[in-house]
Amino acid sequence: MEDEGDDENWRGITDDDILAVDLEYIAEEASSSVSIQTTKKRHLSGSSEQEDAELPEKIVKFDEGWQEESSPPIHSLRGGYLWVSDLCSQMWCEQQLEYRLSLPPDDNIPEPEQVTKGSSLHLARELEVQDYVNVTVTSSEDIFAVKVLNLLIVLKSILTQSSDVHREVPIFGVVDGVFIIGKIDEIRVDRETFHLDIVDLKTRRTKKPPGRAQKATHNTQVMLYKHLFDDLIRGLIPRHSLMTTLKLDLEQTLGESVTSHISSGLTSILDGNEKNRSWTLSHLLDHLKNAAESLPFINQLFIDYVWQEDEQTFLIEEVKYDDIWLRSQMTKCMRYWRGERECQGVDIEDAWKCHSCDYQESCSWVAKKIKELQQARAAKNAMLSQ
After folding, report:
1. Which residues pair with 296 in a beta bridge?
2. Residue 169: count of CB within 10 angstroms of its CB
3. pLDDT at 18 over 60
4. CA-angle at 370, arms to 364 and 374, nearest 5°
5. Which residue of 18, 49, 115, 124 is surrounded by the most CB atoms within 10 Å?
6. pTM, two decimal places
């Protein structure tokens, strides 16, 4: 998607042309939960029913001015930070993403069957290596501490090589000055080489590879995971963003339930004094930094394509990390979130996406392009008639 100069691409297309092309659009929605993974196959989930998807409202304590309509989308739509899935959806269609985030949900639109099946398969694979245990959270700091503890336990497990596969691994960091949160489907460890690989699971309704547009979003996702994980290995813990963006108090004592599970989950790396200390996010982040700096960078990236019919892998594709390409895409995306440019829809070569969009009938981007087309034709006819 280009920032400028795309108007010419829409010449010669009508509204019927835009909506007439069939599309197999598989929505790839990552399942999310607040949880703690331990080497004993336990996964702890916040018993206050505060899910990851609710963090923008429940963690971030907004300034009054941020709620004004003139606020850039990063604040008005996402509370100051983004999910990796936001950026992938943006690359599919920025206009569709804005509608989804800004308009009230339509309860009459059921979740697509392929999305339901994909989420179920993600959960089934996660439960192969870990279970869930409830944790009572009493503050925003507790919620984020659970995320940090999940990540820290995975890093500890990688270092001790107690497991070769780690799933639903939380990750966070800063990309182009914006705080980003994500959840890695799978990290695999090669015990002989100590190489770490990221594997992202994508389910397909048909047993064939995705098209160019979908591949771009898939590649972006795993590249972002590598970028965030490698920054963690470099010791880049975004404490400032946690305080200024998420408004977290890193020195606030964590709740009793969270503290209890920190002591039990990190037994092997805590000394006697730490087991009975009053834990804060700052203490957890110190341990996270120490553990991360002992790990290697991510070695390879893979997409595991699974056919929904038999839930078996039919294709594994390696994604080559391209730092220049990724930074270019992120710069383009962040200009929208910062309010430096208006929202844009798809280019002409991707107009087929409109056919499966829930917002196609009232899409202002399509209407704008059709109007520009009509004006161009009218001007051309006027010149020919002279």
Report:
1. none
2. 21
3. no
4. 140
5. 18
6. 0.78
